[in-house]
Design a protein that fits this description.
A: 592 residues; alpha+beta; Immunoglobulin-like; Purple Acid Phosphatase, chain A, domain 2; 2 domains; seven-stranded mixed β-sheet; B: 265 residues; mainly beta; 2 helices; globular
C-alpha cells in the first residue's frame, strides 16, 4: 500500500510502538506536559536549531542575523513569556528578544535579529523580531523561559530557566557539554544535527556548521520519528560468591601450609533485549514510493563514461563493458541497481550527452529490475569545474534528468530517497541519493531531515567520495553524514568518481590513500570509465544476510575486460566485506 | 648546444622502456597493438631481419593518422569536434613495462591536416600535480606527456605538462653525454597547446579525475615540411603519473615496438 503525497508515509507491519517509544529512540523527548525539563541543565523539548550572526555583512546573502528554534515533540508549545537572549563570547551582558505565539510540533520558529548594510536577501518571514546584533563568529545564545536578562558569562548552566543554551565559536566561554560549536563565518551557520532533532546537551557534538538555511513556522516540518525503540538491555546476573579458603593447620615450629584459595563465582549477564519493531517512517520529499521486499539485495555500478567524446555515442569498447555489466547484474538476483554517477563524457551543451545517456539506458535495459541513479560531476554543465551551479538544471544536467533520472524514477529532483521495507516488518532501509554537484540549501535541509528519520539500514549514494571536495556538496553533506555514522545511523556510503573499486577506509588491494578513507565508504567506479586502479571493470552486489542482518558487499569483475566483450560475474575474492546495520565491521564475510 | 636537463634524462633510449624499468638491450617480444590501434598494425613496414648477433627488434607499429580538414581550434574543448570521434588514430591505453595496460588509463589520439599534426592526449589522474610554468622548464617533475619525433641523428622532443607548459628540444647522439645524447633547447616546436583539467592542481588526496591536452604541431617543425599521405613519422609517447612528488605509474606507446605515425589519405 503506497501513498504518493508530497510526503510519503508508510506504516510498518506489526507497528505497535507509541510516540513515547520512538521519541526516546531518536533522542527526542516526551512532549511538553509529560516531562518538560531534563536534569540540572534544564534542557527541554524546544531547542535552538540554528544560529547565524553574519547577516548583513559585506558579501553575505542574508540581510539579518537570526536564531532558529525547533519543537522536537509531538505537542504544541506556547512561547508566551519566553525569550531568546544573546551575549558575546566572553561577555555577561545579555540582550533580549521576547517571543510569542505557539510553536507546533515538528515546526521551526524564526527569530530575526539585527540587519547590516550588506546582504541581498530578506530572511523568510520571521515569527519574532529583535534587534540584537550578533557576532559573526562566536557568542552565546540562550532560549529562556522568561524575559529576565541573564547575567552570567561563564557558568551559565545549570539554570532551570534556560530551556536550551548554545555557545558558538571557539571562544565562547559557556556552552553545553564538552565545548562550543565550531566557529561560524559569513556563509555558515551553526546547525543542530537531525534537522533539530539531536540533543545530547553537547554543543560541540550536536551542531555542525553548514550552509545558512533559515527556517520559519511555514517551513517543511520535521518529525523526529523513526523506528521503534530498542529493547531493554538485560541486567547483569548476580556475581557469584567467592569460594572460601580453607587454611591448613599451622604446624608447630614447622611451615605453614596454606589452604586452597576459593574460586570466585562469575555472574552470568542478562540477555540483551531485542529491538522494537518499527514506527511510522516518513521520509521527507523528494522520496520514492516505499517498496516491500523479502530481503534487501541490490547492485552498484558507477563511472561508465568513456575517456573522451564529442557528440558521439559510447565507443564500442565502453559500450561492451556497460552492456556486460548489466548482463552480469541480471544474473545476480538483485531487486534493483544503484548508479553512482558519470554516465557520459561530454561538455556543456544541451543535448550533447544524450547519445551516451541513450547508450547507457539501452545497456541498463539488460537488467529487468529498477535502476536508481545519482548524478556525477559529468552530469554537470562543464565537467572541468566538477560542479554544477546550485540549483541549475540546464544543459547536460537537464539531459540527465530527462534521459536517465526521470525515466528511472518518475521524478525530477537529482536528490531523493528510496525506502525499502521488509515484508515481515523486521527491518527497514533507506537509500539517500545525494546530488553533491547540484548542492543547494533545499537539498541540505532535505538531507538533514532524511538522516533524522531512523531506519534499520541507511545507505548513502553519492558520486564523490568524502575526499573529493571539488563538488560543492561533498563537504557540506559529509558534515551531516559523518556524525550520523558516528551515531550508528549510517550503514554504508556508496560512491564512485574515482575510477576504481575500493574497500572501506582506503584498504588495499584496490586504490590507496587517494581513494576513500572513510570507514563507511566504498568506491565503485569501475563501470567502464578509464581505470585508475584495480584489475578490471565490474560492479558490486550489496545483500542483507538474513541470518544476522549484516550487510555483505561483494565485487564482481570480468575475467579479462580489456579483451573485449565482457560479462563481469566473477566474484573478486579480495573485495568482500560485511558490516552491521550501524556500520560497524562484521568479521563474518560469508555470502548470504 | 647545451644539454637539456629534464629532457636529456628522458632520452630516447630511456624512453623506450627504461623509465618503467627496462632498457633497450632487454627488449621483450613485441607487445600487441593497443585496442583501437589494431587496424593500424597492418601498416607496419617490413621487419628488420634479425641476425644471430643482434637482438630481435620488433617491427615498428604504425598508428594510422586520419586526415582532417583544418584548421582545428585548439582549446581542449571537445564539444562538437567530430575530428576526435572514432577509434582510428588512437593508441588505446598505454602499456606499462610489463606490457599491461597502464594505470591510470592514458591514451593519445592523432590527426593531421593543414600542415599540422593534431594530438589529443588523455591522462587519467587521481591527483593533478603541476608547478612549472616556464617554457622549456623541467616539466618532467610535473604530470606531463613526453613525445619524441624522429630517430637516430635527430630526435625532436616535446614535453607538455598538465599546466600546458611546453619544453621542446632537438636532440642528437652524444657519446660523451651520460644520457647518450645532447639536446638543443633553442629548437622550437611552435606547438599550440590547450589543456582541460578535471580536478584540482597540487591538492593531494582529493580524488581528481583526469586532464586532457589538445595540441597542434607544425609538421615542418618536426622535419616533415613535405608531409603527405603515406608519410611515416617515427613517434613515441610516454607518461608517468606523478603522485606525492614521484612517479607512481608509467606507460607509453611507440617505445616497444617502435612506433610510427602513418599519415592517411
Amino acid at each position: 500500500m503506497f501513498m504518493t503525497s508530497r510526503r510519503h508515509k508508510q506504516t510498518v507491519a506489526g507497528l505497535a510502538m507509541g510516540f513515547v517509544a520512538f521519541a526516546s529512540a531518536t533522542g527526542c523527548e516526551a512532549p511538553e506536559g509529560l516531562d518538560t525539563r531534563r536534569g540540572a541543565l534544564g534542557s527541554t523539548n524546544l531547542v535552538i536549531s540554528q544560529i547565524y550572526g553574519g547577516g548583513g555583512n559585506s558579501g553575505t546573502k542574508y540581510k539579518n542575523d537570526f536564531i532558529e528554534i525547533f519543537n522536537r515533540t509531538t505537542a504544541a508549545v506556547s512561547l508566551s513569556g519566553w525569550s531568546v537572549q544573546y551575549a558575546s563570547a566572553t561577555g555577561a551582558s545579555w540582550s533580549i528578544t521576547a517571543l510569542s505565539g505557539t510553536i507546533q510540533p515538528g515546526h521551526y520558529y524564526l527569530v530575526e535579529e539585527a540587519a547590516g548594510t550588506g546582504g541581498t536577501t530578506n530572511l523568510p518571514t520571521p515569527d519574532a523580531t529583535g534587534t540584537i546584533s550578533m557576532s559573526l563568529s562566536s557568542g552565546k545564545v540562550a532560549l529562556v523561559r522568561d524575559t529576565t536578562a541573564l547575567s552570567c558569562s561563564t557558568g551559565c548552566l545549570p539554570n532551570a530557566n534556560i530551556a536550551d543554551f548554545v555557545g558558538y565559536g571557539s571562544s565562547a566561554d559557556s556552552f553545553e557539554g564538552s565545548g562550543p560549536t565550531a566557529t561560524l563565518t559569513n556563509t555558515t551557520s551553526a546547525l543542530r544535527a537531525g534537522a533539530g532533532c539531536t540533543d545530547t546537551d553537547n554543543n560541540a557534538a550536536d551542531f555542525a556548521t553548514g550552509t545558512v538555511a533559515p527556517r520559519n513556522s511555514a517551513s517543511p516540518t520535521n518529525a523526529c520519528g523513526g523506528t521503534g525503540t530498542g529493547g531493554t538491555t538485560g541486567t547483569g546476573g548476580t556475581t557469584g560468591t567467592g569460594g572460601t579458603a580453607t587454611g591448613g593447620t599451622t604446624g608447630t615450629g614447622g611451615t605453614s601450609t596454606g589452604g586452597t584459595t576459593g574460586t570466585g563465582g562469575t555472574g552470568t549477564g542478562g540477555t540483551t533485549g531485542t529491538g522494537g519493531t518499527g514506527g511510522t517512517i516518513v521520509l521527507p520529499s523528494p522520496t520514492l514510493a516505499a517498496v516491500h521486499v523479502a530481503n534487501l539485495s541490490f547492485g552498484v555500478v558507477g563511472d561508465t563514461r568513456p575517456s573522451s567524446s564529442t557528440t558521439g555515442h559510447y565507443p564500442a569498447s565502453v559500450d561492451n563493458i556497460v552492456n556486460g555489466i548489466f548482463t552480469g547484474l541480471q544474473t545476480q538476483n538483485v531487486s534493483f541497481v544503484v548508479g553512482t554517477g558519470d554516465y557520459a563524457y561530454s561538455s556543456s551543451s544541451a543535448g550533447s550527452a544524450v547519445p551516451q545517456y541513450d547508450d547507457y539506458m539501452a545497456a541498463r535495459a539488460k537488467f529487468s529490475g529498477k535502476f536508481l541513479p545519482t548524478m556525477g560531476n559529468h552530469e554537470c554543465n562543464g565537467f572541468t569545474d566538477s560542479n554544477c551551479p546550485p540549483g541549475s538544471f540546464t544543459g547536460m544536467t537537464q539531459d540527465y534528468v530527462n534521459t536517465i533520472l526521470s525515466p528511472s524514477t518518475s521524478q525530477t529532483s537529482p536528490w531523493f530517497s528510496a525506502l525499502y521495507l521488509a515484508n515481515d516488518g523486521s527491518w527497514s532501509a533507506k537509500l539517500v541519493f545525494v546530488a553533491a554537484n547540484a548542492w543547494n540549501t533545499a537539498q541540505q535541509t532535505w538531507l538533514q531531515a532524511t538522516l533524522a528519520v531512523k531506519t534499520t539500514y541507511t545507505f548513502i549514494v553519492r558520486h564523490e567520495p568524502a575526499n573529493a571536495n571539488t563538488a560543492p556538496g561533498t563537504t557540506p553533506s559529509e558534515n551531516l553524514i559523518s556524525p550520523a555514522f558516528t551515531a550508528g545511523n549510517i550503514t554504508l556510503s556508496l560512491t564512485g568518481h574515482t575510477h576504481l573499486i575500493q574497500l572501506p577506509g582506503g584498504t588495499q588491494p584496490y586504490g590507496d590513500s587517494f581513494g576513500s578513507t572513510k570507514a563507511y565508504e566504498i568506491i565503485i567506479g569501475c563501470g567502464g570509465a578509464p581505470l585508475d586502479a584495480g584489475p578490471d571493470y565490474g560492479y558490486a552486489v550489496v545483500t542483507r544476510r538474513v541470518s544476522d542482518g549484516a550487510i555483505v558487499t561483494q565485487a564482481y569483475q570480468s575475467a579479462n575486460a580489456s579483451a573485449g566483450a565482457i560479462v563481469p560475474n566473477v566474484a573478486d575474492a579480495n573485495f568482500r566485506f560485511a558490516v552491521n546495520a550501524n556500520g560497524s565491521s562484521n568479521a563474518n564475510t560469508t555470502l548470504p | 648546444m647545451r644539454s637539456l636537463d629534464g629532457l636529456a634524462l628522458l632520452g630516447l633510449g630511456v624512453l623506450l622502456g627504461g623509465a618503467c624499468g627496462r632498457t633497450p638491450s632487454a627488449r621483450a617480444a613485441p607487445v600487441a597493438p593497443a585496442p583501437g590501434a589494431s587496424a593500424s598494425a597492418a601498416l607496419a613496414p617490413s621487419a628488420v631481419a634479425p641476425t644471430a648477433n643482434r637482438p630481435v627488434i620488433a617491427d615498428p607499429v604504425a598508428l594510422e593518422v586520419p586526415r582532417v580538414a583544418g584548421p582545428v581550434v585548439i582549446d581542449a574543448e571537445l564539444e562538437g569536434k567530430k575530428i576526435w570521434e572514432g577509434d582510428t588514430g588512437t593508441t588505446g591505453n598505454f602499456k606499462d613495462s610489463a606490457g599491461q595496460g597502464m594505470v591510470p588509463y592514458t591514451e593519445a589520439k592523432a590527426r593531421w591536416g593543414d600542415g599540422k599534426l593534431y594530438l589529443m592526449l588523455y591522462a587519467g589522474d587521481l591527483d593533478l600535480q603541476g608547478k612549472v610554468r616556464a617554457h622549456d622548464g623541467p616539466v618532467e617533475r610535473d604530470d606531463a606527456f613526453h613525445l619524441e619525433f624522429g630517430r637516430g641523428d635527430e630526435v625532436r622532443v616535446i614535453s607538455v605538462s598538465v599546466l600546458g607548459t611546453v619544453a621542446d628540444a632537438l636532440c642528437r647522439p652524444s657519446p660523451t653525454d651520460p644520457t647518450g645524447r645532447s639536446c638543443d633547447r633553442s629548437w622550437e616546436s611552435h606547438a599550440r597547446v590547450a589543456v582541460d583539467r578535471d580536478g584540482t592542481l597540487n591538492k593531494i588526496g582529493d580524488n581528481d579525475e583526469e586532464w586532457v591536452i589538445e595540441m597542434a604541431v607544425p609538421l615542418a617543425a618536426l622535419g616533415f615540411a613535405d608531409a603527405h599521405a603515406g608519410t611515416r613519422i617515427p613517434f613515441s609517447i610516454h607518461r608517468c603519473e606523478i603522485g606525492h612528488g614521484s612517479s607512481r605509474g608509467c606507460g607509453g606507446w611507440g617505445g616497444e615496438p617502435l612506433g610510427e605515425l602513418a599519415l592517411a589519405p
